[in-house]
Specification:
The chain is an alpha/beta fold. The protein has nine helices and eight strands.
């Protein structure tokens, strides 16, 4: 039974001690697709992600997280565009807005978000969107910057029905993480029921957000099976149907 983890950070130091074992556990669990999301907060972070993805045989994306928008440079813009043009990355992201923590000024987050969508359009790569407490502006930017030309995914979806509807109208996929499995996530699961199966993705966002029954542990790709299991229940389909659909959607989005 195949599964896909559409958002991982297995290049981080939390996995340095057991990365080969982690990949083995994922394979044994049936995880046949994984995307490594390289965080371009500095050249070290991007290089680490690219190197780990190459060594592990994984698809990789690259982008500047909204937390780090204040560190944006023209050099990074040029590098992301070059990587996209040479097929070095299969997507631009994660990019977007985070108005919960405001680690970078909001106007700077918006500008960097727009710049990276433009890079994605220039290199014909989909975008991976991080949005928190910024649904309306996220929708407006995606529409104004014509993100529908390249498509993408709303990663770790925790937004409103309006965000889901707008993203689907733009041709985007919606990716659900362990958060959608939490006991207090009934409202989120109600939105998940409205997402067509052919637009559904599952992810871990590891090492964060481990789903039950692994709450409190370091998350890892093998645990995406638990996300798929809960989402299959929500959608009223078999676990096998959910797994096969999310693998097919992963392949469509990231060009496997």
């Amino acid at each position: 039974m195949p599964f896909a983890d559409s958002h991982t950070h297995i290049d981080l130091a939390e996995f340095d001690s057991d990365r080969p074992a982690l990949l083995k556990r994922a394979a044994e669990a049936g995880v046949v697709r994984m995307l490594l999301v390289a965080q371009a907060d500095d050249s070290v972070g991007l290089d680490r992600g690219l190197t780990t993805a190459r060594d592990c045989g994984l698809k990789v994306s690259g982008g500047l997280h909204p937390h780090e928008a204040i560190s944006w440079t023209e050099g990074l813009a040029e590098r992301l565009q070059t990587l996209g043009e040479t097929a070095g990355v299969c997507a631009i992201g994660e990019i977007g807005l985070d108005f919960h923590y405001d680690h970078s000024p909001r106007d700077q987050q918006e500008e960097v978000f727009r710049r990276q969508i433009r890079i994605a359009r220039a290199v014909r790569r989909p975008v991976i969107i991080h949005t928190r407490e910024a649904d309306d502006l996220t929708i407006r930017i995606l529409q104004e910057e014509k993100a529908d030309e390249v498509g993408g995914a709303i990663h770790c979806f925790t937004g409103t029905q309006s965000l889901a509807d707008a993203a689907l109208a733009l041709g985007f996929f919606i990716s659900f993480s362990g958060i959608a499995c939490f006991a207090n996530a009934d409202a989120l699961r109600a939105i998940a029921r409205t997402v067509p199966l052919d637009r559904f993705l599952t992810e871990t966002d590891c090492p964060f957000l481990a789903p039950p029954p692994h709450r409190g542990k370091r998350n890892e790709p093998a645990f995406v099976v638990e996300v798929a299991r809960r989402m299959a229940e929500v959608k009223g389909v078999s676990l096998e149907e959910m797994g096969e659909a999310t693998v097919a959607n992963f392949d469509r989005l990231f060009g496997v």
